[in-house]
Amino acid sequence: MFDTSVAARFVGMSQIGLSALAESLLGVHIPKDPKIQKGDWSRRPLTQELVSYASMDVWHLLDIHRELEHRLRVVGRGQWVYEECARLEEIRYVAPDPTTAYLSLKGSRSLDGRGRAILKRLFMAREAEALRRNRPPYYVVRHETLIYLAGNPETDLTQFPTLRRLSESPFGLHLRTALRMGLTDPPINDSIRRSVNSVNLFETRRLSRLKEWRLKLGDELHIDPALVWPMASLKRLAKAPETLNSEFRSPDVRQWQRERFGASLTESLV
Known about the structure:
Nucleotidyltransferase, domain 5; DNA polymerase, domain 1; 3 domains; 59% helix
């Protein structure tokens, strides 16, 4: 695997999308049409417009790859990118927990306990219908519609523009049942406990120094400071600098980071 956006970050580019890379590296303009991007790509056969659009996305990839590899060789960061890409290859899909997946919908946190209970029922009804149709859930009922119904359970589905044609279908009946059951379910209140960790003045100052260290190195190398060292690791070191050796073995920290910045980080903690 070779991730062009990862490679672009390591050669100091800020615009790392495919269109931006084609433009800046090759001088090629790839037009982006939001209407096509958000279209229904599950329909077959694909229209010639969609086929042409998709082919443009990959047509220039090899040239972009070659140009990025050349720039990586110039700055001596090829191995850094290869390690990052190898980590990406290890990522495996983890199915969302069906009991909490509904909370991933934008707007779910703004609902009260009753609204969350209703949303959970609606979400599960939509998931079942999406599986039955073998369609993406968003194309069954939009996320925004679920959020609206959860906050306004008295809505008449026959008066709702995007649901009117479904109101008398089996799925429409399932939605009505979900609304009724959600109204009788116990409210789902926000159970996320926000732990209050006391941070003393020394830890705050130490973290500020570590951030400055990372920012300085990022500026010197002309890369995003976030690439220099993981913030999660810096926060742990700010609390417990004596755990530096353990941090070097942390899965958050890359081998190239340890080799390139380990000594410098050690000095900054002294």
